[in-house]
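Entry 14: structure prediction run for Pyrimidodiazepine synthase. Input pasted below.
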Amino acid sequence: MNSKHLMIGDPCPPLINGKLRIYSMRFCPYAQRALLIAAAKKIPYDVVNINLRTKPEFIFEKNPGGKVPTLELAGDDEGCLYESLIVCDYMDDVYPCGASAGDGSCVDRLTAKSPLQKAKDRILIERFNAVTTLDNQALMLPPESSDAEIKELLQNLVDSLKPFEYELGMRGTRFFGGNEKPGMVDYMIWPWFERLPAHALLWGSNFDFQQAKSCLQQLNAWEEEMIKDPAVKESYLSPEVHHTYRLGKKRGSQDYDLLLHSKD
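Run finished. Output tokens:
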């Protein structure tokens, strides 16, 4: 998962028999969605990380847009799949019981059994686009932004989360997917909750996301439960690590192999 990000001229590693191939980028929240579902479903997989600034030629053979996540099956003649929600739905459908884990365990579907509830959950995931948009706006705020501008964006971000606070309260469960374990909605929105606290490291007290969302009691309790989840732990990175990567991205010099360099 923390392997070198491949670049122009690098060959594509051979597929591993019996394993899904996920083309990813270690700091991409959309790619993390796929990693979360593969981990939650106990699906054997391997990861090939892609440098998104100098993309290797082979990624365009898998995905015309050269984006991540892209999913490829060993020996699959049907090609590859891409777009995070499509990839995640596919894994949930094809591995309905986690049987590929080979350990006798059974992982139920992460999407709701009721077609109506599944549709409502997808609407909720789509509504989360408002949060991802504000997160990106916060990341790309110019350095000369005023305190008032920063605080206004922070308030807009908290406001965009209130529908999710309300929905979780209405469901009366620990997770959007129920009381026992996270479901598809939980995993699709988690990557941004992992990254949002990093804004305070860039903007200081003017963008203290953790303090600003103290009014969101349901989501705060949900976040504490999510961070204990084994699938989340498998790909989790601290706010400090996300801040270091995002600061580089803001400057146009992101270090995709940051985790490898930090070991040197």
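Notes: Residues 99-104 have pLDDT under 50 and may be disordered. Will compare against the previous run tomorrow.
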